[in-house]
Amino acid sequence: MNRNRYQKQGHNLKASANKATILSVDTNTAPNTFRVSLQWSGNYDISDFDLQRFGKVLSVQDETQNTGWAIIERPFRVHPAYALPGWVINEPTPALSPGDAIPLRPDLEFGLRRSKRSS
Questions:
Q1: pTM as predicted
Q2: Scanning 7, 34, 64, 98, which has the fewest C-beta atoms within 10 Å of its C-beta?
Q3: Could you tell me where the beta strands, DSSP code E, fall in 1-119?
């Protein structure tokens, strides 16, 4: 059912090469964490994708050959816009939503580019 809903909204669940597509994001896993479910194409593992950009990766699990999930702890960064006594303006981390793409980790992406040049 969810798969059909995403396709109707124009989301392509078949991730392009070297990217994973977010299937769902659950923010009710534990305090200051969220769970993200991914789907990808190709011979990859969930740990091959750049999940660290969203915070500290606490746990990952492959469910099938091309799906898996990760639990990520949100980073706490305070970027005050301006100072007011007793107030801090926090800059939020980027929101994730179903259909967003996550690229491979930079170290793997570099290795792929290098191997394509040598072939």
A1: 0.65
A2: 64
A3: 19-26, 33-40, 56-64, 67-73, 101-103
